[in-house]
Amino acid sequence: MDEPLTEELLAELRSSSSADEYLTHHPSATRILSDYLCELLETHGRERKDVIRKAGIDQTYGYQLFTGARKNPGRDKVLALAFALGCSLRETDRLLQAAGVSRLYVKERRDAIIVFCLDQGSSLEETNEALYHMNERTIG
Fold this sequence. Notes:
Elements (H helix, E strand, L loop, with lengths): L5 H10 L3 H7 L7 H12 L3 H8 L3 H9 L7 H11 L3 H10 L10 H12 L3 H10 L7
Helix pairs in contact: 4-5, 4-6, 6-7, 8-9
């Protein structure tokens, strides 16, 4: 899962003689949500049923996300899964991107609280508590 940073890729793109040359070495890779969820399960040593339960997601719906039967979850469902998996900020943003929803944006008050909680290793419950106390909509 060691991927080059965006800044590193941008430097390579700028030093390439053409976009085609760059793309030959770095084909665009779009993540598939279900594949990335399974990859994160393995990376974090979690069980699917435990993650679904911790995320507070209906069991059938959760299994559909992990198997690819359901492809378009809402942003808050993805955030709940990220907290249940114990994702880092980078992993959470990649998960949001794979789901086709907006990534976290620290200029948004609610997102800033979520980012802070991710960085602190907070649970979903602790994050929801922080959001509630700061008069922001909770996750899920």
